[in-house]
Each structure stands twice: as structure tokens, then as C-alpha cells.
Amino acid sequence: MATMKDVARLAGVSTSTVSHVINNDRYVSDPVREKVESAVKQLNYAPSALARSLKLNQTRTIGMLITASTNPFYSELVRGVERSCFERGYSLVLCNTEGDEQRMNRNLETLLQKRVDGLLLLCTETHQPSPAIIARYPAIPIVMMDWEPFSGPSDLIQDNSLLGGDMATQYLIDKGYQRIACITGPLDKTPSRLRLDGYRAAMSRAGLTIPEGYEITGNFEFSGGYQAMQSLLALPERPDAVFAGNDAMAVGAYQALYQAGVSVPQDMAVIGYDDIELAQYMTPPLTTIHQPKDELGELAIDVLIHRMAEPAQQQQRLQLTPELIIRGSA
User: What positions does the domain HTH lacI-type occupy (predicted)?
Assistant: First the structure.
């Protein structure tokens, strides 16, 4: 494999001149540039990304650790992150934890060993990254997305789930519903707990009781919403409206209602959370709380890049504001 020295020898110039031509970071006369480009072509020379990263002490690569899921929210979030990376001249390396703590820490070590310039983490509080691994790479900045940080230096970006849960429930109350149930996400996730707290706050403010069995813990997946709705339908007194903690569970709830012959919203109203792309194509289209996924991804990358440029800056905790999207399910 040809090296930069081979190119310089064939072109009759110094290796620094070859570097300037390849990186286009300094003026080189046209005749010299042509000789270098001709030598590169003859030798089929390809610059070494590893050598460049070692020289510049940066790889222009960002790592992201995430738990794979059938929930479309995560794929839409990753899409926004990847787009933001590309627009800023970075590549994204994605690692899936599959919800396994050992696999998460192994992937974490792999990303850090490969010298990513920064790291985005989207995990659960019960499976937190190993502080010992993080401590071995103190120069690599970290941004947490959507959950409370572990005890270590990191920036945090999340949506206002407490407000979002309150908004969803208050909308159902304003529409005249009183028997309102809640399908929560896993309660080891801060957003799940906050959305549940928002639901309870709105119910309490309206003087509405929450009957036994009206709060059901799901899993943020289609299956969780389906199973939770089956449980709600089996209650002696069914709710007349349901707040699902995310849209994936709302989709599952739709399926259970369809199989039971229960019409939305005539027999039961449903409101979701996240505003995934699928929500607008459901029958009827799903009323939901919009979580700004593209903005979340873009903000995460910008915060991370800013942290890489100024590592000593104060820890940031940023919060995005949810928005009610009114469609036909309530």
C-alpha cells in the first residue's frame, strides 16, 4: 500500500506539500498540485484516517449508545442525530445495548477505545454506564439524552415529561372525559415517572379520582400497550379515555380496542406521546404530545461539539417543551 512518502518521492516534492494538497489547507501552486495529484492517482494512494486522527487528536466521529427497540421514536431520534452529525462534518457510530448492562459497558469501552470525539448516551437508570470506564477516558465529553445522569460530568438534554403528561391529561379532561386511565412506560425511566406524575397532577387538580387498576405499567413497546389495554377492558368499569405514555403503546392499545369492537374515540378516547410519524396515519389519526425529536438530536450534537471545544464549561441541563397535537382520537 502506497504511503505519503511514496507520493512525495514520485512527485518530487516534500511530504508536507503532499499533505497540503490532500487537505487543501495551504496554498500550493497549480503545477505542483497537478504533479501531486498525478502521483496520487498513479499510486492509488488513500490517506490514512487513523494517522490523521492521531496527528490532529480528533477523529470527527461521535459515538452513540442506545437500546434498540421496536418503538419508532428511537429510530426517528437516531435519524435526527445522524443528520445533524453529517451537517456538521461528523460521522456517527451507533452501538446497541439490547438492554443488557454487560453489553452496554463493553460497547461503551469499545467506543471510547476507538477515540470517538464525543459520546451520546440514551439508556435507563437501572443500567447505567460504568463510572470506572468513564473515568478512564476523562477527556471525552458525554451528553445524556432523556434521563437523569449518573454521578459524573455530563450534559443532560430531555423533554419536559411532567408538563407533557399534564397537558395530555388536561386535554382529555377539557373534552369532558372523567374516567381517564394511564398506561405508563417502565418506571425505571425518568420520563415514564414524570409523565405519570403529570397525569396524576391533572387528575388531582380537576378533583377526579383514579380508580384501582387505572394505572398500568407498560414497556414503551407496541406489545405493552396491547396488553395494558386488554387489562383495562377487563375492568368492571372501563375508562372512557386513556393516556398512553408513548405512541408505540397507543398503537398497541388501538389494536386491542379494534379486536374488542371498541371504537376510537366514540367508545374510548386515546392520546399518546412522542408524535411519531405513524401517528398521523392511524385510524383515526392519533392525538398526541409532540416531542421535538429532530431538535433533540440537533441540540444534543451542538451541545456535545461545544463541550468538545470548551471542556471546562459548566454542566448544562437543557429541557425542550412539548406541544399538543390535536387529531381525531380524542
Answer: 2-56
- 151 pLDDT band, cuts 50/70/90, is low
31 in Cβ contact with 87 (< 8 Å) = no
Report how far residue 158's alpha carbon sits from residue 145's, in angstroms, rounded to the nearest whole number.
6
Q: What is the mean pLDDT of residues 134-159?
A: 74
- Domain of 29, CATH number, reads 1.10.260.40
C-alpha–C-alpha distance, residues 245 and 278, integer Å: 16
Q: What is the per-residue pLDDT for 54?
A: 44
Which residue range forms the structural domain that includes residue 71? 60-159+294-322
**Rounded to the nearest 5°, which phi and psi values hold at 269?**
-85, 150
Contact 163, 151 (CB under 8 A): no
Query: Residue range 289-299: average pLDDT?
Result: 87
Residue pLDDT, tens place only, 82-121? 999 999 889 998 888 877 778 888 888 888 887 788 888 8
Domain with 314 in it: what CATH number?
Answer: 3.40.50.2300
Q: Is the residue at 99 inside a domain?
A: yes
* Averaged pLDDT, 292-305: 86
pLDDT at 50: 46
